[in-house]
Design a protein that fits this description.
Number of strands: 12
Cofactor: FMN
Keywords: Flavoprotein, FMN, Oxidoreductase
CATH architecture: Alpha-Beta Barrel
Largest sheet: 8 strands, parallel
Helix content: 40-55%
CATH class: Alpha Beta
CATH superfamily: Aldolase class I
Number of helices: 18
Protein name: L-lactate dehydrogenase (Cytochrome)
Number of domains: 1
Pfam families: FMN_dh
Family: Belongs to the FMN-dependent alpha-hydroxy acid dehydrogenase family.
CATH topology: TIM Barrel
Structural class: alpha/beta
Shape: globular
Length: about 400
């Protein structure tokens, strides 16, 4: 039987290290978020149901989004051991210029609805981080105001083609004048997808004050306080709109656009052209032959055609078909840094993340976006080290096995 004795204070003192108290409640919330899923949980608590569902949801039965996330979850990462991975460089090249991380911030509409700091906050994080940020046509901060907020950020402008082509030409001109580096044409929205969460929530822009929203306000006073005491929530590229998102898309966007219209776009834009919404090998080849400098394999985050192809599934075939002729980016279903690494290994030059940073924005404004980047960056770096790679270029299809 072992002898027992009371511990001396000198022995206890090294073990009793109280955790530092974080006074700021936003910093305290964010410090506890270790994954993008954690940020999502905070975002769900911090924002009204309709706002969270607009970000979190997808089209119809949301099969496309679930399939994309499921494929990332089921793939197998294959490490190569006994490699010197003390130094890891996550830098890659996008459109001929370095990006400190192998992803960019995807364009998202109505960003000031998620948090009143909106697009300015996202652009400032992109500027500090050294990654590109794509501003949406459906953004709630103007082209020029984003430039004022983050003058040194790598800024791309995402364009939907409107029935009124002159309005699109004006946006392109403003983007060029404001120093935007690239134009991103989204081609998978000839009509709006059926986003049933929004319909069930009665979601409109700006939010309508119904009995339901008034009751919801009681549970989210900070969000409503910020909405009502800051600049009115409107589309920066439109004079005004009051109605559902689907009605807006169907009213404005041109369902007659074809690949031949890329020539029109090239005639008014001299910089790099990215085409977003590619879902087949044949379409990838067509738009690259028509002059695209980069393509985004994307089914719009599952928000357009339900049961659409999973971008990660078609990535290897697209990389084989056009990878020598254009840069290939990928989005949809990315919930962590390991997802980004897997896409790079299978042939993507970089990824776009949307929901991941929006969860951060809803959870804590600009600091929340920065926290999302910290999480993704740490996960990318750690996954590369565990795979036995030091640089993005060392990732190959041998590192991934798809189910």
């Amino acid at each position: 039987m072992s002898d027992r004795q009371l511990p001396r204070w000198s022995e206890l003192k090294p073990l009793l290290r109280p955790k530092p108290v974080t006074v700021n409640p936003t910093d305290r919330r964010l410090s506890k978020a270790l994954t993008i899923a954690d940020l999502r949980a905070v975002a769900r608590r911090r924002t009204p149901r309709s706002v969270f569902d607009y970000t979190d949801g997808a089209a119809e039965a949301e099969i496309s989004l679930r399939r994309a996330r499921s494929l990332f979850a089921q793939l197998e990462l294959r490490p190569s051991i006994l490699r010197n991975v003390a130094d890891v460089d996550t830098t890659t090249t996008m459109l001929g210029s370095p990006s400190a991380l192998p992803f960019a911030f995807a364009p998202t509409g109505f960003t000031r609805m998620m948090n009143h700091e909106g697009e300015r906050a996202v652009a400032r994080v992109a500027e500090r981080t050294g990654i590109p940020y794509a501003l949406s046509t459906m953004g709630t901060t103007s082209i020029e105001d984003v430039t004022d907020a983050a003058p040194d950020a790598r800024k791309w402008f995402q364009l939907y083609v409107w029935k009124d082509r002159s309005a699109g030409e004006e946006l392109v001109r403003r983007a060029a004048d404001a120093g935007y580096e690239a134009l991103m044409l989204t081609v998978d929205v000839p009509v709006a997808g059926a986003r049933l969460r929004d319909v069930r929530n009665g979601f409109t822009i700006p939010p309508a004050l119904t009995v339901k929203t008034v009751l919801d306000a009681a549970a989210h006073p900070a969000w409503w306080g910020n909405l009502l005491t800051t600049k009115p929530l409107t589309f920066a590229s439109l004079s005004s709109w009051s109605g559902t998102v689907a009605d807006l898309l169907n009213t404005l966007f041109d369902p007659t656009m074809t690949v031949d219209d890329l020539a029109w776009l090239r005639s008014i834009w001299s910089g790099p052209l990215i085409v977003k919404g590619i879902q087949t090998v044949d379409d990838a080849r067509r738009v690259v032959d028509a002059g695209a400098d980069a393509i985004v394999l994307s089914n719009h985050g599952g928000r357009q055609l339900d049961r659409a192809p999973v971008p990660l599934r078609i990535l290897p075939d697209v990389a084989a078909a056009v990878g020598q002729d254009a840069e290939i980016y990928l989005d949809t279903g990315i919930t962590g840094g390991a997802d980004v690494v897997a896409a790079l290994a299978l042939g993507a030059d970089a990824c776009l993340v949307g929901r991941a940073y929006l969860y951060g924005l809803m959870a804590g404004g600009e600091r929340g976006v920065a926290r999302a980047v910290e999480i993704l960056s740490s996960e990318i770096r750690r996954t590369m080290q565990l795979l036995g790679t030091n640089t993005v270029d060392q990732l190959t299809p041998d590192h991934v096995r798809l189910p």
